[in-house]
Specification:
The structure holds two protein chains of two kinds.
Chain A: H1 17-52, H2 68-77, H3 89-106, E1 115-118, E2 121-124, H4 134-154, H5 158-189, H6 194-199, E3 204-205, E4 209-210, H7 213-216, H8 220-232, H9 244-247, H10 257-282, H11 297-320, H12 326-353, H13 355-387
Antiparallel strand pairs in A: 1-2, 3-4
Helix pairs in contact in A: 1-10, 1-11, 2-10, 3-4, 3-10, 4-5, 5-8, 5-12, 8-10, 8-12, 10-11, 12-13
Chain B: H1 5-13, E1 38-40, H2 55-59, E2 65-71, E3 83-91, H3 100-104, E4 110-112, H4 123-126, E5 127-128, H5 130-133, H6 159-163, H7 218-222, H8 239-244
The chains are: A mainly alpha, B alpha+beta.
């Protein structure tokens, strides 16, 4: 229907003045919202981290230091922009944008509320609702790998190179786990579109719990996605791409001024986007109890509240966990998250057919798991014998 | 569930009080013997204490002091002695605030104040001249435009001298060995250690004595002037006894 999809930036129903206006307004609003929330996120993270470390944190710029990121950003704009002599100049200039643009784009598919009506036009509160939906997120996070990788590669320096090698290995590894967690959601919803995923989670589960995917899918895909997205974002405890202590900043060592700012913009924007995606996929998006007045506002508040909680969790992770070693990182990704989410996907698939099939798949999985553990312990024994 | 105890710790820390002192607004109290920027003192009658002997310049390990003496004009003497410090300059780009100049000074002319916040912006400002170092007519240190004095910073400008007994003899601790200062008179000796740190019966040094000789000399103890000086030892104390305690 034309009216329902007015403002769709994919222009599937043709284009007219109202559609174009709605698209422009939505894009500008989303852009401004993201930029402001990145500034707030940096401030929020620094404040929470300093609270956890019994410090005061930024408190000079504005009330409670709320303008600190703005001051930092302004400072970065006026810094000298260095271009290393041995850098691959064109790629060096390109890389920050490869990092920042996907961060902006992936937010476009996040539904931040229900629908809203202006006069005759009803539009969904999300920039775009493409039929490929969540695949777009995976594509964008794959493009972001290029940003980090090319940044390190083109710097012509060893620390960025090491950082980018780690980055590509880490991000590619965890993309598999990320994709498998998303697959569980898609399997259950039967649709790739984020709007369909969100509307599929409305209602109650057995009359007590909200029927969000985190409960319906049995927590495992949720935690797999949370861990894998943290790794995908190169946030602590998976930040060995930057690893200030070993790699003096990793892939962005040679970057300065506004290009450096773009990397950090991208990192924090990705953090916000990933938290929003987790809310969309597993926590029902804008779903939650509303009231009769201001009917359009409550979903937005629910969405923002859930995202804020997840952002706090991200900061909490950073404040608590020490950085993983490279082999621990790969062990966690390949030996725990990927097999775990694969098995869970199989069980979910069985359960979707019938309860009996679910139990059969579960039994087979347990059997295989036991055999695997037995084989591992035998192998460890063998190694011990050889060693002694 | 050992994995999650760490998360509890960080969450708990959020409600603990902060240890940060918000520096420019709040300041920690400075120690009594803090080494700050120097002042050149005056006697109570307004005469300068410096006699231009250059001992401070000689002892300075950073070689930041430059002194030249000159004979006092007979009709209007600047210092009570034969000579006075005609040129006195300290280069604060070099000074390490070791206080050796204060120890070397025979007339307690140069002492260190509590001021350390002076953000000069040129080399000329960094070199303090005699006119800038000298205390004003009322005995207070001068405040230069780039200095951040707070109330109290200008009080204990000669604390080090009053903290240590001459020649390291404990028997002389608490006895005034210094001349008066313009605006403050003869300063009281620094109080001894905190009472908790002093064993009972040994509180005979440096307690409550102001300008009079403290009742801590062996004679005073023997005469029973010390209220509780009979703690462990009976009979007259020797300076060695005092040192032991």
């Amino acid at each position: 229907m034309f009216l329902a999809s007015a403002g769709d930036p994919l222009f599937v129903d043709g284009i007219n003045f109202a559609v174009a206006l709605a698209v422009i307004i939505k894009v500008v609003l989303a852009f401004a919202f993201l930029l402001v929330s990145v500034l707030m996120m940096i401030w929020f993270e620094r404040k929470i981290i300093s609270d956890m470390q019994n410090r005061v944190g930024p408190d000079r710029a504005g009330p409670w230091g709320i303008l600190q990121s703005l001051a930092d950003g302004t400072k970065l704009f006026f810094k000298e922009d260095l271009l290393p002599d041995r850098a691959d100049k064109r790629i060096f200039r390109l890389a920050p944008y490869l990092s920042a643009v996907p961060a902006f784009l992936s937010f476009a598919i996040v539904p931040i509320g229900g629908t809203i009506t202006f006069g005759h036009y009803t539009t969904e509160l999300q920039v775009a609702d493409p039929p490929i939906g969540i695949l777009f997120l995976l594509a964008m996070s794959a493009v972001a790998v290029y940003g980090v990788m090319l940044a390190g590669w083109s710097s012509g320096s060893k620390y960025p190179l090491l950082g980018s090698v780690r980055a590509s290995a880490q991000m590619v590894s965890y993309e598999a786990a990320l994709g498998l967690a998303v697959a569980a959601v898609v399997l259950y919803t039967g649709d790739l579109s984020t709007r369909a995923i969100v509307t599929g989670q409305e209602g109650l589960l057995r009359h007590i719990l909200p029927s969000w995917n985190v409960f319906r899918l049995g927590f495992v895909p949720f935690f797999v996605f949370l861990i894998a997205s943290t790794a995908e974002l190169n946030r602590p405890p998976f930040d060995l791409v930057e690893a200030e202590q070993e790699l003096v900043g990793g892939f962005h060592t040679e970057y300065s001024s506004i290009r450096f700012a773009l990397f950090f913009l991208a990192e924090f924007m990705n953090t916000i986007t990933m938290s929003a995606i987790v809310v969309t996929l597993f926590l029902g998006g804008p779903d939650g109890p509303g009231f009769h007045f201001l009917r359009w506002l409550w979903p937005i508040l629910w969405f923002l509240g859930k995202t804020l909680v997840l952002l706090f969790v991200q900061v909490w992770l950073r404040g608590t966990l020490p950085r993983l070693r490279y082999d621990q990182l790969m062990d966690l990704g390949w030996k725990v998250l990927i097999p775990g989410s694969l098995v869970w996907l199989l069980i979910l698939g069985g359960m979707l057919i019938s309860f009996k099939w679910g139990l059969i798949v579960l039994g087979i999985s347990v059997l295989f798991g036991a055999a695997l553990i037995r084989a591992r312990s035998l192998g460890a024994q063998r190694v011990g014998e050889v060693g002694s | 569930m050992g994995y999650f105890t760490g998360f509890k710790v960080t969450l708990r820390q959020m409600w603990k009080p902060r240890v940060t002192v918000k520096y420019p607004e709040q300041k920690r109290p400075k120690p009594v013997r803090f080494h700050g920027r120097h002042v050149l003192n005056r006697y109570e009658d307004g005469m300068e204490k410096c006699i231009g002997c250059e001992l401070c310049a000689g002892v300075c390990p950073a070689r930041c002091i430059h002194v030249r003496g000159r004979d006092n004009p007979p009709d209007a003497p600047v210092s009570p002695g034969e000579r006075y410090g005609f040129v006195y300059e300290i280069n604060y780009l070099r000074c390490i605030h070791c206080d050796l100049c204060v120890e070397a000074c025979p007339t307690e002319a140069i002492t260190e104040s509590k001021l350390f916040e002076f953000s000069f912006t040129s080399r000329q400002d960094a070199i303090y001249t005699r006119a800038e170092l000298l205390v004003s007519e009322d005995g207070a240190p001068q405040q230069l435009p780039w200095e951040d004095w707070r109330p109290g910073d200008d009080h204990d400008t000669s604390a080090w001298m009053r903290a240590t007994s001459p020649s390291g003899s404990a028997a002389e601790e608490g006895i005034v060995h210094w001349s008066g200062e313009r605006g403050y008179g003869v300063r009281a000796p620094e109080q001894g250690q905190a009472p908790a740190a002093v064993p009972a019966g040994s509180r005979l040094v440096g307690r409550g004595a102001l300008t009079e000789p403290a009742p801590s000399t062996p004679a005073a103890v023997a005469a029973g002037l010390e209220p509780d000086g009979d703690g462990g030892s009976s009979g007259p104390l020797t300076p060695e006894d005092g040192a032991l305690q």
